[in-house]
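Handout, section 4.2: multi-component inputs.
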Amino acid sequence: MKPVAFDYERPASLEDAIALLSGAGARVLAGGQSLGPMLNLRLAQPELLVDITYIPELKTAERQGDGLWLGACVTHAEIEDGAVPDVTNGALAFVAGGIAYRAVRNRGTVGGSLAHADPAADWVTCLSALGADAVIAGPSGERRVPVSEFLSGAFETALEVGEILRGVWIPTLSSAASWGYYKFCRKAGDFAEAIGAVLQDPERGIVRTVLGATNARPIVIDGAYGDESVRASIDSQGGDMDAYDRQVHFVTAKRAAMIAGVRVA
Amino acid sequence: MDGVEGTGVGASVPRREDDRYMRGRGQYIGDIKLAGMKDVAFLRSPVAHGHIRAVDIPDALRSKVTIAADMVGVKAIRAVTALPGFKVSEQPALADGKVRYVGELLAMCVAGDRAEAEDIAQAIAVDFDELPAVHDMLQAREADAPLLHEQWGDNVFLESVVDDPNFDTVAEKATVHIMREFRTARQCMAPLEGRGVVAQWDNRLEQLVVYSATQMPHIVRTGLSDCLGIDHGKIRVIAPDVGGGFGYKGILLPEEVAICWLAMQVRHPVRWLEDRREQLSANANCREHHYVVTAHADSTGRLIALEAKAHVDSGAYSAYPFSACLEAAQVGSILPGPYDFEGFRCTTWSSATNKPPILPYRGVARTGVCFALELMIDAIAREVGREPHEVRQLNLVPASAMPFDNITAKHFDSGDYPECLRRAVEAIDVPGIRARQAKGEADGRLIGVGLSIFCEQGAHGTSVYSGWGIPMVPGHEQCSARLTPDGELELRIGAHSHGQGLETTLAQVANEVLGIDIDAVKLVHGDTQYTPYSTGTWGSRCMVMSGGAVARACQAIGERAARIGATLLQTDVESVQIENGNVVAPGGTVSLAEIARVWYLKPQDLPPDVDPAGLEVTVGYKPDRDTGTFSYAAHAALVAVDPELGHVEILDYAIVEDGGVLVNPMIVDGQVSGGTAQGIGTALYEEMPFDAQGQPLASTLADYLLPGPVEVPDVRILHMETPSPYTEFGQKGIGESGAIGPPAAIGNAINDALKELGVEVDALPITPRRLLALIQAAAT
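Output:
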């Protein structure tokens, strides 16, 4: 399969990108690791691709206030390789290293992954557990949305027409914080069947369990970990999950809790 | 495996063709660029079953689009069999009136490049009267099932029966009766290179020149000749480097017929390159079986009788040349496996369904048969409370009985099956695993060991295939050999390498016979213009058949050279022999190169009464018996099962393999390793599901999971060597073996791991979803 004909622009500033996106049929291209195949399969038939990878501010990664700013075009590989500051006691690098395959990580970006909004992707679950914000730029200025609310459904986000995900802001974990991340795939590099992510940060008074790779946005459970509360959340928020989905989501959450040290074996 | 010294038969010579492959210099269909060449994209059916009501092509595009009505005089593909009761399907190149599977070709669109051709396809609107789909091989036989081929009256290509009037009497002697039901998934073959065709009409030669990614160029030519209604001489098929085939590239595709027809209408070359989505969802389908098997045994586990009812989901059409019935016919004849018992009966049905035609894949029916049979053997072992390997030992054909004619008249040529199994048990260390199981695993997983043992018929010939009567029956295999003026040896064969390394192994055969340097041997293959007719590369036959033909041709060349050499050495032919590429007499030596130089360039140096036959021969070969060689192997797997997630990890995998005399042991190890990776895919990952409307649910490799490097363990391969008594060097066909044993060994290992939970797997692939469902069902 080959894509339909489309125009291609590579703006050098966020303002230019936003202006280009105001036209009908325009789509953002970042690392292209999801959009590329969709173009080839003609599932996406845009009139214009706006390549944002040459916008300098989207490539930045720096400490900002009590947290870390990651521009949307920072790649998974840069996070995996420690080329960005670490405010998460190693969580970001661990998760990045488990995304798909190295070839995908070399080009795929944190912003592209969030904006593509595949529920099975890692960042939406990981960053929801860390309490990160999505920073959105648009014609009418900038706004912030918690990553846990950024997905409005499978492959649907809070982004309005003409808006770009600028990046994410991730709060710094205290030194005593612990985390657990357990992803279950049928094979290495495959899309997740289920993801469990647990954060415990006593100094900030946070215990949070996130169930990812659901059929929509991740399920976030704030407060002390408990098997029963996980099961109850799956029942109430799991939508059309069948017995298999319920089981693997429960087990990955449980194992993440054990890794984070909030549940004993 | 290192093999013997030197570069003859038995040496692990590095593959000569790898130099160009590893440097990216191989030449595949996608590398061929002809001046003025245009690309084709096919519009494919979005519905599984329906009548075509109207095809609406925008007027401006009409000249770039071909539909069935345009292809006047082109015949449908017909892959018939001589088996009684077989019903014929007509597979048109482009759907004519009715579509029978999603992905069937509706229209052929040609343009300057593929993207533009796809734009044209997208602009065509097709209106259907949709019919309900037959989506399952069992549903196909229900009384109210929709009919694919209305004139048949049912959806069965063929029902075949292997019966024994005394069966019930024999079975009554048994005290243990076990029935199980098994299903294997529809799979897709996934060679790195897809299919592809470039075709051009040559006005000077009045010949259609076809470049095709095929493992059987002569059969493609015959099939094209039939469908297009032109003589063989007007068709030349060239198969360049072929990037894997596994059976898929032995099929004449409707795409090939359509592209070739188009090339005859237009004044430019045309090309179609299959993409992965076409391959997965519309073309390379294989493997889908259903079994109900009953085993009758005594209280020690001795098998007394076996009966089965088996279905094969053959898809919508009978694929050329292997037909819709190859799998089912195989099932009925190979289900007894390597075992000896008294009673057997089996009925098989080849069901027509609204899915792509089923195609033969490495191992053909053996992978499913081995899974069904070997899980039965373990079920017997559990029932009688014995180790599965002990029950197998009770039932295997012993070495002392070889050669052995089994219950379905298969002639096992040689081997020691019990010893093979014993070595596999030792290699995986069954006693050590039992001790480890008793202690339990620190991580909570459950481990289990599983075995499978099977034999693989290879290089079977006329006497086997004539009974099936498919369009292609292998006869003698030929090799044309020629010494060139420089003393190089050209070998021309009609089979074709799609990764087997024939450029190396056949040179080794020539070296074995003539002592000629393998670098002086050039293999010419993959071109109908230059090679003798052959059914091609399939059925693990090349090393036996082409290897035998090369050996005989080299012997003939040696005899011719010896006569000329004796003249040059001024002695008689009885006094000379061939050694290391020379003709040697007690008083002197003359090289093959010198003999060739004189023959071609200095004939004045030869006496007038020299034998004028020259240094070029075509020799045919067939083994002493053509019922096939039987290589065999035992696979042993150690797995760990995560009972909470249903995930299976292969911790250890050992294979004991006997392929007779191995011409190149290193290449054989590669064949076994690659096949095992595919078998692991069958066992745990690969599945092409269809919904009730006949829609394929996997169309990319993100949905159709292939095992990767992490999922395929470091397989330990151990060898035995029992020569075949019937072949040139004692070699046996072994190309498919690795792909046969893994689902059975892994399935048995999982059942062993979950024995205490009362879980038995019954379907492939063994996914976490299936395994957790079984575990949960067993717990309630």
